[in-house]
Structures are given as C-alpha cells and as structure tokens.
Amino acid sequence: MTVWIEVDLCNGCKRCLKACPYGAVEMKGDKAHILERCTSCGACLEVCKQKAVQSDMAPRVIPDFSDRQGVWIFAEQREGTLHPVSIELLGKAQDLAADLDQEVAAVLLGYQVSGLSRTLIEHGANTVYLAEHKALKDYRSVAYTKVLEEVIKAEKPNILLMGATHIGRDLAPRLSRRVAVGLTADCTELNIDPKEKILLQTRPAFGGNVMATIANRYSRPQMASVRPGVMEAKPKPRNKGKVIKHKASLTEKEIGTRILEIVKEAKKAVNLSDAKVIVAGGRGVGDEGGFKILNKLAAVVGGEIAGTRVAVEEGWIPVERQIGQTGQSVHPELYIACGISGAIQHRAGIMNSRYIVAVNRDPRAPIFQVADWGIIGDLHEVLPIMIEQIKKA
Questions:
Q1: Range of the structural domain that residue 387 is part of
Q2: pLDDT at 269
Q3: What's the Cα-to-Cα distance from 198 to each of 177, 217, 222, rounded to whole Å?
Q4: Which helix (H) or strand (E) holds 291?
Q5: Residue 347: which residues within 8 A CB-CB, separation 6 or more?
Q6: pLDDT score at 152
Q7: Helix axes 166-178, 141-155, angle to 10 degrees
Q8: 233/282 same-domain check
Q9: Could you tell me the CA-to-CA distances from 379 to 288, 323, 337, 341, 386 in Å, in that order?
Q10: Is a pLDDT exceeding 80 seen at residue 59?
Q11: How does pLDDT run across 264-298, given as a tens digit for each residue?
C-alpha cells in the first residue's frame, strides 16, 4: 500500500502535514512530499480538500452486523454474591438497549448460583445466560474465558460490558483476544451514536490528560469495562425475564491451575461509593493538619472524608479514601471539593455526583467547570463560615 502526492493538484495548504501523526509529510518548496516513514494510516487522505493525496489502499468495508443483537453484561459473583458493579452495569445496559431497540442480557457463571438469576432480572436483564459447573465455583482465568467465549460465539451479542474489578481486569483482555475484538478499559461514559448506532466509549487517555471517545466499527461484540461506582443501578422489580442454561464442558487438566487457598484482604474502613455526602481535599489543603477543618465540615453535614492522589501521596489521608482515575469512582448526592484544582484524572471519579461544590483560591481552576456552585477563596477562611452557617440552619 502506497501513499503519494499528485503535485499538480497540491496547493501547499499543509493540512496533510498537520494531520500526519508520524511526521511523514514534509514541504518541498510549496508542495507536500511523503517520506519513507509513512505508515499508510490514511490521516492525510481525509484532510486533503484538493484530492492531491492519493493512495492505492482499498477502503475498509464495515461488515454486516445485523445478526448481532443484545446488550450484555458479565454478572460477576464471588462466593454466590453478586458484585455491585454487575447491578450498576445493568442500569446502563438498559439505556443502551433502549437506544438500539434491543434487549438486555446477563451472563452468569459459577456453581449453584442459579438463584442470582432472579436478582439480575429484577435489575433489567431480559435474559440470563447461566453456566454452572464445579470448575466455575471460584474464578479461574482459563475456565471463565473458555465458557464465555463459547456463549458469545453461540449467541452473538452486539455489546458486552464488564466491571473493571480485579476479576474483570484479568478476564476482559483475555476474552477480547479469544473472540478477536477490541476492548476499551476503564470507561467513564458509554453512549450510542444516534447515526451509526455504535457504542461510543469514553475513557481517560494519555495519562489522564484528555478524555478519548473510542468506537469499534469493524468487529463484534463491542467490549468495554467500567469501574465500580461509575454507573447507576436502575431496578425493575416487575421485570420478567428468562434463563437460558449453557452446558459447560471443563476438565481440570485443560484449566491448568488449582485454587489452594483464598486469602481475603481486610475490608476497607469505608466504601465511598455508598456515601451520600463527601468532603474531599487536595493540594490546597496544605498539610495533614489542614484536614482537621474538613473533618469538622464532614461531621456537620454527615459526610465522609476523601481526597486526591496528592493528599494520599503526602500521607494526609489513607489510600482507601482516594478518589479519581487511580482511586474510587463515587456518585454522592453532594460532593464538596476543597483545595482541589480539578485535574481530569480526579474529575473522572466524581462526574456522577449529583451536586458539586468547589472551594478554591484560583478562579481558573478546572474544578469550577464541573461544579454546580463555586466559592473563590481560601478554604481555611471559607469552611469555618460554612460550618457556622450550617450549624445555625
């Protein structure tokens, strides 16, 4: 495949030079020239209005996916208990399915877990694909990947959503490789493109400095993983659904691993994803002592204390209270951000908060772009006044 310039058509606009991500276009005089480092990505072809950039590449054809139906979620369970992210994903799956005029399904793997099917149906699943086997009692990569691959190839879903949990982070990439599709990990937003009717998957990229929206036009299912706490559950207690059993065939020899012991880590002191009110501090708090005033505010509003990555790295708060791309994602009724600039990594973790109040000395702080109410001022002066007013109220 070759890309070249029709010199007679080139007007020297330099659009191709700016569009090339590999620096493979240079100007010779007032005409563009393709260098040897060109990868034939086609970026220059799309921007050239003069049609001076030519190629012998055949245009990529989008396959017919009319036989791919359904918005699926992987229903993660541990020791017979559904992980909350499964219920959250069903809530989002209902919205996506409505936009596509398709149905919602859940895939449930385990042993003696059929009773969980009713819970999945009551939270939006029209169909539950159930695979039970002794080898599926505890999560093992090879076993779960094999069974999910079989169900996907047999039923041909359009979309598959998974939780970005410890299990999901191991299972999702293995599964995407098996079924030969792409995977967008740690999504913070999922929508359906109204024209193309494909899944738009938004996630932080380039170290969290930008939010990238990714679309998969050429393979199915469209796979994405979502962190716990990002989506909202939408119960449907009167929903009626069906259970379709899948017969799993597994042997210990092909699985290749055995679970000798399960060691549980100590439970976190607080699950911030359940908090209704959160008071969070960032670099602007100053030091560990600065969190004392935040604790007082949290006490009067009945909230939990949290913070940014900087607050954790400085040792001002424990790591389990970190919010953001590398911490927890939360969706409280009220989020009070104190001395937090609002880097995109942090905003990714609070975007589902109902109301955001920001206190910051810098009027240009990015946190004010997402805040419902903003107070410009020193938090050490503002918070005592807030506390006093709340007490009076």
A1: 272-392
A2: 55
A3: 20, 7, 8
A4: helix 291-301
A5: 366, 367, 370
A6: 97
A7: 50
A8: no
A9: 14, 19, 10, 13, 10
A10: no
A11: 766 555 678 889 999 999 999 999 888 999 999 99
The CATH number of the domain where 292 resides is what?
A: 3.40.50.1220
Is residue 16 situated within a structural domain?
yes
Give me the number of domains the chain comprises. Answer: 3
Q: Are 103 and 212 contained in the same domain? A: yes
- Looking at the fold, whether 380 and 284 belong to one and the same domain comes out as yes
pLDDT tens across 111-136, in order? 999 999 999 999 999 999 999 999 99
pLDDT in tens, 326-345: 788 888 999 999 999 998 88
76 and 162 part of one domain: yes
**Domain stop point among 255, 285, 303:** 255
Q: Which residues pair with 373 in a beta bridge?
A: 357
- Number of residues that this document lists for the chain: 393
Residues 240 and 276 in one domain: no
Tell me which long-range contacts 112-119 makes (C-beta under 8 A, separation of at least 24): 112/80, 112/137, 113/77, 113/80, 114/243, 115/80, 116/75, 116/77, 116/80, 116/82, 117/241, 117/243, 119/82, 119/87
Instruction: Record the tokens describing residue 248, joined without a space.
Output: 């799993």
Measured distance CA(278)–CA(147) in Å, rounded: 41
Query: Would you say residue 316 has pLDDT above 80?
Result: yes
Query: What is the CATH number for 40?
Result: 3.30.70.20
Same domain assignment for residues 251 and 315? no
